[in-house]
Amino acid sequence: VEPTVVAALRAIAAAGTPLSTAHAVDVMRASYRSYVQNNTQHFRALFGHLLEDRAPLVIHCTAGKDRTGFACALILHTLGVADDVIEQDYLLTNRFYRRDPASSSDLPEHVKQVLGSVRQSFLAAAFEAIDADYGDLETYLRDGLGLGAAERARLEARYLQG
Fold this sequence. Notes:
The chain is an all-alpha fold.
């Protein structure tokens, strides 16, 4: 799942438009929608790995907060975790994540602050794309990610054992 956020922001700036916080938020939301619209096959592959009997499994991305955050939200949803708990977990990123100050040094500080954080609206954009493209999350899990009742039961048995 290729990140396109910085390239999209640089393209806006190259067109002569001063970058704003709103640009950064819009580009981040578009990126999250892209996880569903253009990269579902990669998240399906992730669930294939989760269903295999190999451990440990590390989920990561460049910053460890956006693609990883969406993947973890999907995993938690699949396991039946409540929406508010998933959101709280996702937003913990803002408490613990530390942005590399050298990253994207050509972008304005207010834009880098958006890129170095998560917002509920970012994750919401991905789930809005799920609703738009699949109708609802359950259909996305089944048709997009290939997680029928049997696969979900296997995931629950593997990852919810106490």
